[in-house]
């Protein structure tokens, strides 16, 4: 049997992690977070594929390509979280579990960050635990796929 694939998606500006705003987002890079996810995924006999994009349509396309191919999606949509209904709709058409991750706790920040248009189509959201959120998200996915 083939190993199920978990797609780890990152939205705009996450490519800057580790370089700017370490007080808010920590000093780890996105590659570090994906590595954490990949190591944990192996422990659950899952594979990880990853993609970061600053472009909404590229993320929508990646979600479409995942249909029927990936078992689950872990997504930190960055600022798209708060307004990108196209990503909401693409995730709604995905057939496996979706877990939303945020390094910071958007609910404790500016009011415009309190709305997530992704949360309604996610099995759950993991926010405010920094990089540990990626490990927790893989554990959640593994549970949901069992
Ligand atoms: O807490 C999170 O993980 C966020 O998804 C991060 C987004 C933010 O827009 C969301 O509200 C919460 C920002 C992505 C990273 O942005 C950076 C900007 C400058 C320097 C480093 C990262």
Walk me through the topology.
Blueprint: E1 5-10, H1 22-25, H2 30-43, E2 47-52, H3 56-66, E3 72-76, H4 85-92, E4 98-102, E5 124-127, H5 132-145
Parallel strand pairs: 1-2, 1-3, 3-4, 4-5
Helix pairs in contact: 2-5, 3-4
This protein binds ligand CA2.
Ligand CA2 binds at residues 13-14, 16-17, 20-21, 25, 76, 78-79, 81, 102-104, 106, 113.
Low-confidence stretches: none
Query: If you compute it from the alpha carbons, what radius of gyration comes out, rounded to the nearest whole angstrom?
Result: 14 Å
Q: Number of DSSP helices?
A: 5
The biggest sheet, with number of strands, parallel, antiparallel or mixed sense and barrel status, is: 5 strands, parallel
Widest sheet: strand order? 2-1-3-4-5
Kindly describe this structure.
With 146 residues, the chain is α/β, with parallel strands linked by helices. The chain has a single domain, classed as Dehydroquinase, class II (Rossmann fold). The protein is 35% helix and 18% strand. The protein has five helices and five strands, in the order βααβαβαββα. It has a five-stranded parallel beta sheet, sandwiched between helices. β3, α4 and β4 form a beta-alpha-beta unit. The two termini are 15 Å apart. Ligand CA2 binds next to loops.
Quick overview:
This protein is an alpha/beta fold and about 150 residues long.
Supply the key terms.
single chain, 146 residues, alpha/beta, Rossmann fold, five-stranded parallel beta sheet, 5 helices, binds ligand CA2
């Amino acid at each position: 049997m083939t190993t199920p694939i978990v797609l780890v998606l990152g939205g705009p500006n996450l490519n800057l992690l580790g370089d700017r705003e370490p007080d808010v987002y920590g000093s780890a890079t996105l590659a570090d977070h994906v590595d954490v996810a990949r190591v944990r995924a192996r422990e659950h006999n899952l594979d990880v594929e990853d993609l970061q994009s600053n472009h909404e349509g590229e993320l929508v396309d990646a979600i479409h390509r995942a249909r029927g191919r990936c078992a689950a999606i872990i997504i930190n949509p960055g600022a798209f979280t708060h307004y990108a209904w196209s990503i909401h709709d693409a995730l709604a058409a995905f057939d496996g579990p979706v877990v939303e991750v945020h390094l910071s706790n958007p609910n404790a920040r500016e009011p415009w960050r309190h709305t997530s248009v992704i949360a309604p189509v996610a099995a759950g959201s993991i926010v405010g635990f920094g990089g540990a959120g990626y490990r927790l998200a893989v554990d959640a996915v593994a549970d949901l796929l069992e």
